[in-house]
Write a structure and sequence with these properties.
about 375 residues, alpha/beta, Rossmann fold
Protein backbone atom coordinates (compact mmCIF):
# COMPACT_ATOMS: atom_id res chain seq x y z
CA UNK A 1 0.00 0.00 0.00
CA UNK A 2 2.39 2.65 -1.25
CA UNK A 3 -0.13 5.46 -0.98
CA UNK A 4 -0.64 5.05 2.77
CA UNK A 5 0.98 7.79 4.80
CA UNK A 6 4.15 6.77 6.61
CA UNK A 7 6.13 9.55 8.23
CA UNK A 8 9.27 7.45 7.94
CA UNK A 9 9.29 7.30 4.15
CA UNK A 10 7.46 10.44 3.06
CA UNK A 11 9.35 13.71 3.03
CA UNK A 12 6.88 16.59 3.39
CA UNK A 13 9.48 19.15 2.41
CA UNK A 14 8.55 19.16 -1.25
CA UNK A 15 7.85 22.08 -3.53
CA UNK A 16 4.10 21.62 -3.29
CA UNK A 17 3.94 21.85 0.51
CA UNK A 18 7.06 23.74 1.50
CA UNK A 19 7.11 26.62 3.96
CA UNK A 20 4.06 27.21 6.15
CA UNK A 21 2.28 24.36 4.41
CA UNK A 22 4.77 21.93 5.92
CA UNK A 23 3.38 22.66 9.40
CA UNK A 24 -0.13 21.99 8.15
CA UNK A 25 0.93 18.79 6.42
CA UNK A 26 2.64 17.45 9.54
CA UNK A 27 -0.40 18.27 11.65
CA UNK A 28 -2.70 16.45 9.24
CA UNK A 29 -0.44 13.40 9.21
CA UNK A 30 -0.37 13.48 13.02
CA UNK A 31 -4.18 13.41 13.12
CA UNK A 32 -4.46 10.74 10.42
CA UNK A 33 -2.12 8.42 12.25
CA UNK A 34 -3.69 9.05 15.66
CA UNK A 35 -7.16 8.23 14.37
CA UNK A 36 -6.36 5.54 11.80
CA UNK A 37 -7.68 7.60 8.89
CA UNK A 38 -5.28 6.29 6.25
CA UNK A 39 -8.05 4.69 4.21
CA UNK A 40 -9.65 8.13 3.80
CA UNK A 41 -6.43 10.01 3.21
CA UNK A 42 -3.77 8.51 0.94
CA UNK A 43 -0.70 10.63 0.45
CA UNK A 44 -1.92 12.41 -2.69
CA UNK A 45 -5.14 13.52 -1.00
CA UNK A 46 -3.27 14.85 2.02
CA UNK A 47 -0.99 16.91 -0.21
CA UNK A 48 -4.02 18.31 -2.05
CA UNK A 49 -5.83 19.11 1.20
CA UNK A 50 -2.70 20.77 2.55
CA UNK A 51 -2.57 23.03 -0.48
CA UNK A 52 -6.25 23.91 -0.08
CA UNK A 53 -6.23 24.80 3.61
CA UNK A 54 -2.79 26.38 3.83
CA UNK A 55 -4.48 29.54 2.57
CA UNK A 56 -6.36 29.74 5.88
CA UNK A 57 -4.55 32.42 7.86
CA UNK A 58 -2.85 31.04 10.95
CA UNK A 59 -2.60 34.58 12.28
CA UNK A 60 -6.35 35.10 11.91
CA UNK A 61 -7.05 31.86 13.79
CA UNK A 62 -4.60 32.85 16.51
CA UNK A 63 -6.25 36.23 16.90
CA UNK A 64 -9.78 34.82 16.77
CA UNK A 65 -9.07 32.39 19.61
CA UNK A 66 -6.47 34.54 21.38
CA UNK A 67 -3.97 31.71 21.34
CA UNK A 68 -0.46 31.20 20.08
CA UNK A 69 0.22 30.04 16.54
CA UNK A 70 1.64 26.80 17.98
CA UNK A 71 -1.78 26.01 19.40
CA UNK A 72 -3.84 27.45 16.54
CA UNK A 73 -2.21 25.01 14.10
CA UNK A 74 -4.11 22.23 15.89
CA UNK A 75 -7.37 23.55 14.45
CA UNK A 76 -6.30 22.48 10.96
CA UNK A 77 -7.05 18.90 11.98
CA UNK A 78 -10.74 19.75 11.67
CA UNK A 79 -10.31 19.90 7.88
CA UNK A 80 -10.13 16.10 7.89
CA UNK A 81 -13.71 15.77 9.16
CA UNK A 82 -17.29 16.45 8.26
CA UNK A 83 -18.60 18.18 11.37
CA UNK A 84 -22.12 17.37 12.55
CA UNK A 85 -23.63 19.13 15.55
CA UNK A 86 -26.48 17.47 17.44
CA UNK A 87 -28.12 20.29 19.37
CA UNK A 88 -30.47 19.91 22.30
CA UNK A 89 -33.82 21.57 21.54
CA UNK A 90 -35.67 20.17 24.56
CA UNK A 91 -37.92 22.34 26.69
CA UNK A 92 -35.32 22.79 29.41
CA UNK A 93 -33.14 24.74 27.00
CA UNK A 94 -35.42 27.74 27.50
CA UNK A 95 -34.03 28.04 31.04
CA UNK A 96 -31.79 31.05 31.73
CA UNK A 97 -29.69 31.95 28.68
CA UNK A 98 -29.05 28.44 27.40
CA UNK A 99 -30.35 29.09 23.89
CA UNK A 100 -28.03 32.08 23.59
CA UNK A 101 -25.13 29.94 24.84
CA UNK A 102 -26.01 27.24 22.33
CA UNK A 103 -26.14 29.78 19.53
CA UNK A 104 -22.74 31.22 20.46
CA UNK A 105 -21.08 27.79 20.57
CA UNK A 106 -22.61 26.61 17.29
CA UNK A 107 -21.68 29.88 15.60
CA UNK A 108 -18.07 29.56 16.73
CA UNK A 109 -17.80 25.97 15.50
CA UNK A 110 -19.44 26.88 12.19
CA UNK A 111 -17.00 29.74 11.76
CA UNK A 112 -14.03 27.40 12.08
CA UNK A 113 -15.58 24.62 9.98
CA UNK A 114 -16.35 26.95 7.08
CA UNK A 115 -12.74 28.16 7.00
CA UNK A 116 -11.56 24.66 6.13
CA UNK A 117 -14.54 23.35 4.17
CA UNK A 118 -16.65 25.50 1.87
CA UNK A 119 -19.59 23.20 2.62
CA UNK A 120 -19.56 24.28 6.26
CA UNK A 121 -21.12 21.85 8.73
CA UNK A 122 -24.40 20.05 9.45
CA UNK A 123 -26.80 20.92 12.28
CA UNK A 124 -29.36 18.44 13.66
CA UNK A 125 -31.72 18.61 16.62
CA UNK A 126 -33.07 16.13 19.14
CA UNK A 127 -36.75 16.85 18.55
CA UNK A 128 -37.03 19.00 15.44
CA UNK A 129 -36.59 16.92 12.28
CA UNK A 130 -34.92 19.76 10.39
CA UNK A 131 -31.37 19.13 9.22
CA UNK A 132 -29.40 22.20 8.20
CA UNK A 133 -26.61 21.25 5.82
CA UNK A 134 -23.77 23.45 4.53
CA UNK A 135 -24.23 25.69 7.56
CA UNK A 136 -21.92 28.66 8.00
CA UNK A 137 -21.51 31.03 10.94
CA UNK A 138 -23.81 33.65 9.38
CA UNK A 139 -26.60 31.05 9.06
CA UNK A 140 -26.66 29.88 12.70
CA UNK A 141 -28.93 32.54 14.18
CA UNK A 142 -31.53 32.09 11.45
CA UNK A 143 -31.45 28.29 11.78
CA UNK A 144 -31.99 28.39 15.54
CA UNK A 145 -34.81 30.94 15.29
CA UNK A 146 -36.83 28.42 13.28
CA UNK A 147 -36.62 25.82 16.05
CA UNK A 148 -39.27 25.40 18.73
CA UNK A 149 -37.53 24.37 21.93
CA UNK A 150 -39.76 21.73 23.49
CA UNK A 151 -39.82 18.02 24.12
CA UNK A 152 -37.44 15.57 25.74
CA UNK A 153 -33.79 14.51 25.40
CA UNK A 154 -33.61 11.33 23.25
CA UNK A 155 -29.89 11.58 22.53
CA UNK A 156 -29.25 7.87 22.00
CA UNK A 157 -32.01 7.18 19.49
CA UNK A 158 -31.50 10.40 17.52
CA UNK A 159 -27.76 9.93 17.39
CA UNK A 160 -28.30 6.45 15.98
CA UNK A 161 -31.21 7.13 13.59
CA UNK A 162 -30.24 10.54 12.18
CA UNK A 163 -26.46 10.50 12.28
CA UNK A 164 -24.68 7.20 12.91
CA UNK A 165 -26.73 5.01 10.56
CA UNK A 166 -27.43 7.35 7.60
CA UNK A 167 -24.33 9.56 7.71
CA UNK A 168 -21.70 7.03 8.73
CA UNK A 169 -22.55 3.32 8.57
CA UNK A 170 -24.71 3.39 5.43
CA UNK A 171 -22.31 5.64 3.53
CA UNK A 172 -19.28 3.65 4.59
CA UNK A 173 -20.95 0.36 3.67
CA UNK A 174 -21.67 1.66 0.17
CA UNK A 175 -18.24 3.23 -0.27
CA UNK A 176 -19.61 6.77 -0.20
CA UNK A 177 -18.08 8.08 3.04
CA UNK A 178 -15.53 10.60 1.82
CA UNK A 179 -14.55 11.92 5.24
CA UNK A 180 -14.82 10.65 8.80
CA UNK A 181 -17.52 12.36 10.84
CA UNK A 182 -16.98 14.39 14.00
CA UNK A 183 -20.23 14.48 15.99
CA UNK A 184 -20.50 17.22 18.61
CA UNK A 185 -23.51 16.86 20.91
CA UNK A 186 -24.50 19.99 22.83
CA UNK A 187 -26.97 19.33 25.66
CA UNK A 188 -28.15 20.83 28.93
CA UNK A 189 -29.25 17.58 30.58
CA UNK A 190 -28.89 13.84 30.79
CA UNK A 191 -30.57 11.72 28.08
CA UNK A 192 -33.96 10.09 28.48
CA UNK A 193 -32.25 6.71 28.31
CA UNK A 194 -28.60 6.36 29.28
CA UNK A 195 -28.67 2.72 28.23
CA UNK A 196 -29.85 3.64 24.74
CA UNK A 197 -27.03 6.16 24.37
CA UNK A 198 -24.44 3.66 25.56
CA UNK A 199 -25.86 1.10 23.12
CA UNK A 200 -25.54 3.58 20.25
CA UNK A 201 -21.98 4.50 21.15
CA UNK A 202 -21.07 0.84 21.51
CA UNK A 203 -22.41 0.23 18.02
CA UNK A 204 -20.26 3.09 16.75
CA UNK A 205 -17.22 1.71 18.54
CA UNK A 206 -17.78 -1.75 17.09
CA UNK A 207 -18.21 -0.30 13.60
CA UNK A 208 -15.00 1.70 13.90
CA UNK A 209 -13.16 -1.43 14.97
CA UNK A 210 -14.63 -3.46 12.11
CA UNK A 211 -13.40 -0.94 9.54
CA UNK A 212 -10.02 -0.31 11.13
CA UNK A 213 -10.69 3.44 11.00
CA UNK A 214 -12.25 6.01 13.26
CA UNK A 215 -15.17 6.66 10.94
CA UNK A 216 -17.02 8.56 13.66
CA UNK A 217 -15.66 10.53 16.63
CA UNK A 218 -17.86 11.83 19.44
CA UNK A 219 -17.75 14.93 21.62
CA UNK A 220 -20.35 15.71 24.31
CA UNK A 221 -20.47 19.22 25.73
CA UNK A 222 -22.67 20.78 28.37
CA UNK A 223 -24.80 23.88 27.94
CA UNK A 224 -25.83 25.47 31.25
CA UNK A 225 -24.76 24.39 34.71
CA UNK A 226 -27.27 21.70 35.64
CA UNK A 227 -25.51 19.31 38.08
CA UNK A 228 -27.42 16.31 36.69
CA UNK A 229 -26.00 16.98 33.24
CA UNK A 230 -22.53 17.29 34.67
CA UNK A 231 -22.85 13.95 36.47
CA UNK A 232 -24.04 12.35 33.24
CA UNK A 233 -21.01 13.65 31.37
CA UNK A 234 -18.65 12.46 34.09
CA UNK A 235 -20.23 9.00 34.02
CA UNK A 236 -19.91 8.90 30.24
CA UNK A 237 -16.26 9.89 30.42
CA UNK A 238 -15.31 6.98 32.70
CA UNK A 239 -17.73 4.39 31.33
CA UNK A 240 -15.84 1.07 31.21
CA UNK A 241 -16.96 0.21 27.69
CA UNK A 242 -17.41 3.39 25.69
CA UNK A 243 -15.61 5.99 27.79
CA UNK A 244 -12.52 5.67 25.62
CA UNK A 245 -14.28 6.65 22.38
CA UNK A 246 -15.88 9.88 23.61
CA UNK A 247 -14.61 13.15 24.94
CA UNK A 248 -16.73 15.22 27.29
CA UNK A 249 -16.62 18.89 28.21
CA UNK A 250 -18.54 20.41 31.09
CA UNK A 251 -19.97 23.92 30.76
CA UNK A 252 -17.53 26.79 30.70
CA UNK A 253 -18.69 28.07 34.09
CA UNK A 254 -18.17 24.72 35.79
CA UNK A 255 -14.82 24.05 34.16
CA UNK A 256 -13.65 27.57 34.93
CA UNK A 257 -14.30 26.86 38.61
CA UNK A 258 -12.31 23.62 38.48
CA UNK A 259 -9.41 25.33 36.75
CA UNK A 260 -9.40 28.08 39.39
CA UNK A 261 -9.20 25.45 42.13
CA UNK A 262 -6.16 24.01 40.39
CA UNK A 263 -4.56 27.44 40.14
CA UNK A 264 -5.07 27.65 36.37
CA UNK A 265 -7.02 29.98 34.11
CA UNK A 266 -9.50 28.86 31.48
CA UNK A 267 -10.65 31.29 28.81
CA UNK A 268 -13.85 30.88 26.76
CA UNK A 269 -11.70 30.53 23.64
CA UNK A 270 -9.65 27.68 25.11
CA UNK A 271 -12.87 26.01 26.26
CA UNK A 272 -14.20 26.08 22.70
CA UNK A 273 -10.86 24.82 21.41
CA UNK A 274 -10.99 21.84 23.75
CA UNK A 275 -14.61 21.17 22.79
CA UNK A 276 -13.77 21.04 19.08
CA UNK A 277 -10.56 19.02 19.34
CA UNK A 278 -11.04 16.79 22.37
CA UNK A 279 -12.55 13.90 20.41
CA UNK A 280 -9.87 13.83 17.71
CA UNK A 281 -6.63 14.96 19.35
CA UNK A 282 -5.36 13.06 22.40
CA UNK A 283 -3.51 16.18 23.54
CA UNK A 284 -6.89 17.75 24.26
CA UNK A 285 -8.67 14.66 25.53
CA UNK A 286 -9.13 15.08 29.27
CA UNK A 287 -7.62 18.55 29.03
CA UNK A 288 -10.29 19.72 31.48
CA UNK A 289 -8.33 17.89 34.14
CA UNK A 290 -5.01 19.30 33.07
CA UNK A 291 -3.91 22.90 33.42
CA UNK A 292 -4.86 24.35 30.06
CA UNK A 293 -2.29 27.05 30.54
CA UNK A 294 0.39 24.35 30.54
CA UNK A 295 -1.09 22.71 27.46
CA UNK A 296 -1.14 26.01 25.61
CA UNK A 297 2.54 26.82 26.16
CA UNK A 298 4.74 26.28 23.10
CA UNK A 299 7.42 24.78 25.37
CA UNK A 300 5.05 21.93 26.11
CA UNK A 301 3.60 21.44 22.65
CA UNK A 302 7.02 21.53 21.02
CA UNK A 303 8.54 18.98 23.38
CA UNK A 304 7.85 15.54 21.86
CA UNK A 305 9.14 13.76 24.95
CA UNK A 306 6.69 15.61 27.16
CA UNK A 307 3.75 14.99 24.87
CA UNK A 308 4.54 11.30 24.53
CA UNK A 309 4.94 10.84 28.26
CA UNK A 310 1.73 12.64 29.16
CA UNK A 311 -0.23 10.63 26.62
CA UNK A 312 1.39 7.37 27.65
CA UNK A 313 0.46 7.97 31.28
CA UNK A 314 -3.14 8.48 30.21
CA UNK A 315 -3.04 5.15 28.38
CA UNK A 316 -1.25 3.40 31.21
CA UNK A 317 -3.76 4.50 33.82
CA UNK A 318 -6.55 3.21 31.65
CA UNK A 319 -4.91 -0.18 31.30
CA UNK A 320 -2.11 -0.95 33.73
CA UNK A 321 -1.56 1.02 36.90
CA UNK A 322 1.52 -1.03 37.77
CA UNK A 323 3.27 0.39 34.72
CA UNK A 324 2.60 3.91 36.00
CA UNK A 325 4.17 3.01 39.32
CA UNK A 326 7.24 1.60 37.59
CA UNK A 327 7.63 4.72 35.47
CA UNK A 328 7.27 6.96 38.49
CA UNK A 329 9.95 4.97 40.31
CA UNK A 330 12.31 5.59 37.39
CA UNK A 331 11.39 9.27 37.30
CA UNK A 332 12.04 9.67 41.02
CA UNK A 333 15.53 8.21 40.56
CA UNK A 334 16.21 10.59 37.70
CA UNK A 335 14.84 13.58 39.65
CA UNK A 336 15.97 13.02 43.26
CA UNK A 337 15.17 16.56 44.39
CA UNK A 338 12.18 16.73 46.80
CA UNK A 339 8.78 17.00 45.18
CA UNK A 340 5.98 16.78 47.70
CA UNK A 341 3.18 16.34 45.17
CA UNK A 342 5.09 13.59 43.41
CA UNK A 343 5.43 11.70 46.69
CA UNK A 344 1.73 12.14 47.53
CA UNK A 345 0.53 10.69 44.25
CA UNK A 346 3.22 8.01 44.27
CA UNK A 347 2.12 6.79 47.69
CA UNK A 348 -1.54 6.82 46.66
CA UNK A 349 -0.80 4.82 43.54
CA UNK A 350 1.21 2.29 45.53
CA UNK A 351 -1.67 1.93 47.99
CA UNK A 352 -4.07 1.20 45.12
CA UNK A 353 -1.70 -0.91 43.07
CA UNK A 354 -4.33 -3.53 42.37
CA UNK A 355 -7.58 -1.60 42.70
CA UNK A 356 -10.86 -3.52 42.47
CA UNK A 357 -12.22 -0.83 40.15
CA UNK A 358 -9.52 0.81 38.07
CA UNK A 359 -12.09 2.92 36.21
CA UNK A 360 -13.21 4.56 39.44
CA UNK A 361 -9.61 5.20 40.50
CA UNK A 362 -8.56 6.82 37.25
CA UNK A 363 -10.36 10.19 37.54
CA UNK A 364 -9.10 10.67 41.11
CA UNK A 365 -5.43 10.68 40.17
CA UNK A 366 -5.50 11.68 36.52
CA UNK A 367 -5.08 15.43 36.96
CA UNK A 368 -2.40 15.18 39.65
CA UNK A 369 -0.38 12.66 37.69
CA UNK A 370 -0.46 14.75 34.52
CA UNK A 371 0.45 17.90 36.40
CA UNK A 372 3.36 16.30 38.22
CA UNK A 373 4.82 14.85 35.05
CA UNK A 374 4.57 18.25 33.40
CA UNK A 375 6.34 19.86 36.35
CA UNK A 376 9.12 17.28 36.37
CA UNK A 377 9.77 17.71 32.67
CA UNK A 378 10.02 21.50 32.71
Amino acid sequence: MSNVIQMSNVNPMTNVIAGAGDQVYKKLVYAIQNNNLQRFYPYERVVKLTQQISSVSLLELSNAFRITAEVAIDLYQLALYDIVILADDSGSMTTDSRIDELSAVVEKIAGVASRFDQDGMTLCFLNDAKVSSNLRAADVSSALQKVRFSGRTPIGSVLRQRILHPMVIKKMSHGHLQKPVLVITLTDGEPDSKDDLVKTLQEAKDFNLSTGSTCAAFEFAQIGTDPTAQRFLNELDVHPSIGNIVDVTSSFELEEEEYAKAGATLTPHMWILKLMLGAIDPQYDSADEMAMGDLAEPAVLNNPTMVRLVLSVYAYMMSNINTVVADMVRMRRQHPEPNERFEVVFSQLIAHRRPPNRGALFPKFKYLTFKILLDLLR
